[in-house]
Amino acid sequence: MANDVGTNWAGNLAYGASTLHEPTSVDEVRRIVAGVSSIRALGSRHSFNSIADGTAELLSTAALTGPVTVDRDRSTVTVGAGIRYGELAQELEREGIALANLASLPHISVGGAVATGTHGSGKRNRSLAAAVVGLELVTGSGDLVRFTTSDPDFEGAVINLGVLGIVTRLELKVEPAFEVEQTVFERLPLENLLQNFDGVTGAAYSVSVFTTWRDPDVADSVWVKRRPDQDAPLEETLFGAVAAKDERHPLPGLPAIGCTPQLGVAGPWYNRLPHFKLDFTPSNGVELQSEYLVPREHAVDAIRAVRELSPEIVPLLQVNEIRTVAADDLWLSSSYATDAIGLHFTWVQDQPAVEALLPTLEAALEPFLARPHWGKVFTPGAHDFDRLYPRLEDFRLLTKRLDPEGIFANPFTASLMAR
After folding, report:
1. What is the pLDDT of residues 375-385, one digit of tens each?
2. Structural domain for 164, as ranges
3. Which element (helix H / strand E) includes 157?
4. What is the phi/psi pair of residue 360, to 5°?
């Protein structure tokens, strides 16, 4: 049906499609896809680039949220691709189960986060997509295809950038529910971070370092999310950083009302692992985001390279988050076959200026094999994706097999598929 498709969450991208389909069932998805020549899936609109744009028709997965089906024998849950993590987490908590990790925002859809390789933080925590053990998608012919871990192409189908079909349901691994304590430490000397990177990022279950680079010698804060059932107790200081006495926002000076509870008070996993609450808008107004994932072995050198660029970065930066991701075996994962660190940049919403800066930043990170986050702002032509993703050619072959007519392609993905 015709619609004003509108913009993405940040407002920096107006979708060019003339038609937005809003199906409420898998059968309806199949009928829609079988009747079009080109279409893309649209999730919770949290991508900052044109990965979900570039076709005349879009299909929203927002109403494909259920049912949520728990299989206790397999320790899994099956969900609709459109459900948001915050909503899913609350249902899981009622069942006494949990996902191993969550992203900083609970507002994103499961299908969209998985398709773009979105992740949380934690030295031993893998990307959100690594929890997937099965998925169903509608191909260009309208057929429903299921992938499980026993399929040889499963690792290629999970993080799929939307080019294999419309993902309608996913099966995720779960574990018993757990509690988390969140403590913010302030003013970490940067040299202490660089000299003790494993100690800082391994201090608890999930750790994120935030800095504005306005003082290149000090990281503003370290958000430490501790599992009492696994992690050692925290001290009042962390490698020279001091525990905050009041709750904090990742952006210095902003009120913490929209942030998840801190001060070391234990609470449910879903209300501590994200930085922000589900019922608050997680933004300092409009913004842009970029992120680059670097093999962990290059972490210190990559951070030093960013610090060298701080005079150019600071005028456009709201905050830089540094976090860790464990390796997985998903072909298009930014942590494929390597433990990684994420260098996440929240920019002011000045797209021309940010896009002018990114080639300099990307050139500085290129020696460290930096992989850009698929859903963030980056320079498409600046990356040798075949070098960064050893299974990319296998993914191209899988795409040709499932979507030979290119029904789910768009200019963003076409540039990736080109050799």
Report:
1. 999 998 889 99
2. 69-177+392-417
3. helix 154-157
4. -70, -45
Count of the separate structural domains present in the chain? 2
Integer angstrom CA distances of residue 137 from 20, 27, 222, 378: 19, 12, 39, 28
Q: H-helix or E-strand containing 198?
A: helix 197-201
CATH classification of the domain holding 308: 3.30.70.2520
What is residue 223's three-state secondary structure?
A: strand
Structure tokens at 26: 């898998």
d(CA 310, CA 215): 9
d(CA 127, CA 328): 8
* pTM (predicted TM-score): 0.96
**What span, in angstroms and rounded, lies between the C-alpha atoms of 356 and 91?**
43
CA-based torsion, 307, 313, 317, 321: positive or negative: negative
Phi-psi region of 339 (alpha: psi -120 to 50; beta: other; left: phi over 0): beta
Confidence class for position 3, pLDDT limits 50, 70, 90:
low
φ/ψ (deg, to 5) at 299: -55, -55
Structural domain includes residue 234 = yes
- For 346, list phi and psi in degrees, rounded to 5: -100, 115
The per-residue pLDDT for range 32-88, each reduced to its tens digit, is 999 999 999 999 999 999 999 999 999 999 999 989 999 999 999 999 999 999 999
CA angle 75-77-79, nearest 5°? 170
User: Is the sign of the CA dihedral 129, 130, 132, 135 positive or negative?
Assistant: positive
**Pick from 20, 73, 74: nearest CA to 42:** 20
What is the rounded CA–CA span in Å between residue 183 and residue 303?
Answer: 23
